[in-house]
Amino acid sequence: MIEVSDVIYDYATARALFGVSFKVDAGAVLALVGPNGAGKTTLMRCMAALDAPTQGQIRIAGIDTQDDPRGVHAAIGYLPDFFGLYDELSVHRSLTYAARSRGVPQADAEGAVLEAARRVQLDDRLNARAGELSRGLRQRLAIAQTIVHRPRVLLLDEPAAGLDPEARRSLSDLILSLAGEGMTIVVSSHILSELEDYSTQMLMIRDGQVAGGGVVAAGGGLRDGARISVTFAEPPADLAARLAGLGLTVERLDGADAVILAQADEDDAEVLARLIGAGLKVKAFQPARKTLEDAYLAEVRR
Fold it and tell me: 10: closest CA among 34, 44, 39?
């Protein structure tokens, strides 16, 4: 659905992207992560056919961003980090304008407007002026404008900025719902906790380049076997060596707390029996979910 090949982007005084390449399958939710200034926004603008790369090619839903930028605009929804709204327009008129300008037929516009407003929980504020909305509600309206034409690909640059915890949860639910309907979504952020609930893949950008292993799975299942979180009571000074001596792979060890990787054919009960049989005092023992931060740090180490 998204193909980025050897993309280079130069500003007047500096190079922002250095040969970036990756692919995103249809229906995936890609977390585009990296520190501030890494080149994420530049890459997003190139994907949205707003900036032309100095070199390389980008295809969105089979459309080349340089050969047919208008076709790309019709196929995508793009929410930039800093967005603008027409403050004098009501929510209803803002969404109607967004729908019609993105090619929604007049006969279908009203239904598209009401559906988009409902999805971002603004259907009770259709007559409110955009300029009267709070920061969080303005963000919801901006998101509604990006999905009102039911795009095939959605590009969101820092979409949770300014949203309260409840609104962030609603955004997560919306992204999951859209992805479940087959929409391909790219969400850029440097705050991993914002991406945790809905990302299926991750791509790390550092210094304008793809870092780590390229596009990787996000969440659980990044490794074969189970990840187990263990807390030891009175951990011995040679705990790391003793765990290694038991044939256990230790992903992380911090004082009395450890994350152990079990073999694919080994269940949790067997691991626990080995620990206790070695005389280690186990205080807590439970499956450990692999977080997006774990995936990020693993790619950094690569």
Answer: 39
| Tokens coding 226 | 């189970």
Which residues touch 262 (CB under 8 Å, ≥6 apart)? 225, 226, 227, 228, 248, 268, 270, 271
Q: Is 237 exposed, middle or buried (0-12, 13-18, 19+ CB in 10 A)?
A: exposed
pTM to 2 decimals? 0.75
Strand ranges (DSSP E) for the chain?
2-10, 15-24, 29-33, 55-60, 63-64, 76-79, 153-157, 184-188, 201-206, 209-217, 227-232, 249-254, 257-261, 282-287
CA angle 134, 136, 116 (to 5 degrees): 105
CA–CA separation, 64 vs 116, rounded Å? 28
Q: Both tokens of residue 37?
A: 């200034």
Q: Strands 55-60, 63-64: parallel, antiparallel or unpaired by DSSP?
A: antiparallel
Residue 163: which residues within 8 A CB-CB, separation 6 or more? 136, 139, 140, 171
pLDDT tens per residue across span 196-222: 778 888 898 989 999 877 787 765 333
> What is the token pair recorded at 29?
């939710």
> Which token pair is 200?
């299926």
Q: What is the pLDDT of residue 223?
A: 40
Distance CA 172, CA 108 (A): 27
* Secondary structure E strands in 103-243: 153-157, 184-188, 201-206, 209-217, 227-232
